[in-house]
Amino acid sequence: MTVLDYMNDLGHQARAASRVMAAASAGQKNAALRAIGESLHETRKQLAAENARDMAAGREKGLDAALLDRLELTPERIDAMIEGLRQVADLADPCGEITDLKYRPSGIQVGKMRVPLGVVGIIYESRPNVTIDAASLCLKSGNAAILRGGSESIHSNRAIARCITVGLEQAGLPVTAVQVVDTTDREAVGALISMPEYVDVIVPRGGKSLIERISRDARVPVIKHLDGICHVYIDDDADLDKAFDIALNAKTHRYGVCNAMETLLVAESQAAAILPRLADAYGEKGVELRGCDRTQQILPMIAAATEADWQTEYLAPILSIRVVDDMDQAIEHIATYSSGHTEAIVTENYSRARRFLAEVDSSSVMVNASTRFADGFEYGLGAEIGISTDKIHARGPVGLEGLTSQKWVVLGNGHIRV
Fold first, then answer.
1. Contact (Cβ atoms closer than 8 angstroms) between residue 306 and residue 337
2. Whole-prediction pTM value?
3. The dihedral of CA 25, 147, 126, 395: what is its sign?
4. What is the rounded CA–CA span in Å between residue 121 and residue 193?
């Protein structure tokens, strides 16, 4: 069987399973999620062993530190996967919800019903926990899913797939409702994004080159973000203790994630007071700093930031710093260089906070909080299938509602149009 034949077979089975999933009860879907969690817990030793195989192979291939960090399934991350399943099971089922039901002058009632998208294809690199995130959200939202992880996580994904199959079987749902692509052949990706007869939407999660390729070549609608060039702005009226904690956490909590801060903007009135303190803390954690001319006057030991730095998602312990005149210049910098992912302001000035929220056009905008909160789990979505920087059809962390659509429903009682 060729790769194209194999992918067409997966697509055909997913389309058939999507019709069953659209009619599945919330109880069935929740039972499947809980059973998958139990299976993960019972097989965590095997899962850790398979992940160790992937980690060893990744080191041999020379994967960088950021990719290895994403690939690793620590006991804490396995626990988080299980907890994520439980949280999604506890969320309200969006499917079947009817809203905006109103009587029209003709006597009919018109409203909107929330329905699954159908078949969701997810293409991702390294992170095997995405397999569970994607499966749980697709299941709860009544969709079928085709999951194509990276070759570097194939053993981990196969182990997780077995747990998903167990859960679906125990709940009486078709095991083809979630299919993990069991080939590392890159031709599988090209096939998956070219099957509109089987796949309704594609969600790519990975590096910029992968997402650019999917966006360029897909014949199926794509929910995506290219990169996460996130900013924190320390305002003239910032509490510097809050600013210190937020700026340190946003950069150093984890480096290889899309919601990590890549550029720190500091109002000139605060720069001399906060930057030396931050530089010491970043230095202790091994973060390389690059700054504008005014930043270098305060921190002469750091390298100069170039135009390319403002446009770079480092995913590494590197941070660009710019001292700005005021909020106007900070917002202008963000408008010029942001990828539209997440921006934060640190300020005690209510009016400036409101202005920042209104004028900064990103999928998440924060006041006095770390950009690391831009995450479906932290937003109460249970998990996320990805973060969208598009404005249609979903924006920001994509959870259950982002994996559904709406259709018009009309209720009548023998009404005819005259």
1. no
2. 0.84
3. negative
4. 8
